[in-house]
Automatic annotation (TrEMBL):
Pfam families: Ribosomal_L7Ae. SUPFAM superfamilies: L30e-like. This is Ribosome-associated protein L7Ae-like protein. InterPro entries: Ribosomal_eL30-like_sf, Ribosomal_eL8/eL30/eS12/Gad45. Residues 5-82 form the Ribosomal protein eL8/eL30/eS12/Gadd45 domain. The gene is rplGB.
Length: 83
């Protein structure tokens, strides 16, 4: 899995609320979703991304996604933002 995209992104929104907002605003270019995140949360985001035409990439775990985002805790999802 390529976490490099997350690490290299100049602008990233971490977490469900922020990522959802960026997708809704049309600013997200790609959303990374952790496979072990709560499906009740992720299904909404996946459907939103489909509707908005945003690429969804699955990552192995919340822990690894959080680490790639440079935070100490797990992240269910993160959006790469094009400002």
């Amino acid at each position: 899995m390529s976490y490099d995209k997350v690490k290299q992104a100049a602008n990233i929104s971490i977490g469900t609320k922020q990522a959802t907002r960026m997708v809704e605003l049309g600013k997200a270019t790609e959303v990374f979703v952790a496979k072990d995140a709560d499906p009740r949360i992720t299904i909404k985001m996946i459907n939103l991304c489909k509707k908005m035409g945003v690429k969804v990439t699955y990552v192995d775990s919340m822990k690894l996604l959080g680490k790639a985002c440079g935070i100490e805790v797990g992240a269910a999802m993160a959006a790469v933002v094009n400002e």
